[in-house]
Specification:
Blueprint (H helix, E strand, L loop, with lengths): L3 E3 L6 E3 L29 E5 L1 H4 L11 H10 L5 H16 L10 E5 L3
Antiparallel strand pairs: 1-2, 1-3, 3-4
Helix pairs in contact: 2-3
């Protein structure tokens, strides 16, 4: 999944180009990764996640979707990596209810301090 940056100054979410994402680390031994550079200002937060997050299913088989996940982050007051992680995890759990995940889920949020 493409990385997402939450810009501290504007609160906007910037989904990085899909070309900047690739094969998950550890899947293919000896895979050569390209390097991408993204400038982060103080307070910016980067969100990395696997498709198990945005494709989480509810009891009716509806996926959460990247759009819904990011809408929750955008509409929240979350500004720190920990707060953004909580918003996403809470939305995934709310969406799934009592349904067990059908895929692995990985979520990493980190940011640049002031």
């Amino acid at each position: 999944m493409p990385p997402v940056v939450r810009r501290h100054k504007t609160g906007e979410l910037e989904e990085l180009p899909l070309d900047d994402s690739g094969v998950p680390v550890g899947i293919l031994p000896d895979f050569k990764y390209d390097r991408s550079v993204v400038s982060l200002e103080a307070g910016d937060v980067v969100v990395l996640y696997t498709d198990g997050i945005n494709e989480a299913m509810d009891a009716e088989g509806n996926q959460l979707s990247t759009e819904k996940m990011l809408d929750e982050v955008k509409s929240s007051q979350a500004k720190t990596p920990a707060a953004i992680k909580k918003v996403i995890c809470d939305e995934v759990h709310r969406h799934m209810g009592t349904v067990n995940p059908i895929d692995d889920m990985c979520l990493v949020c980190f940011g640049r301090g002031s």
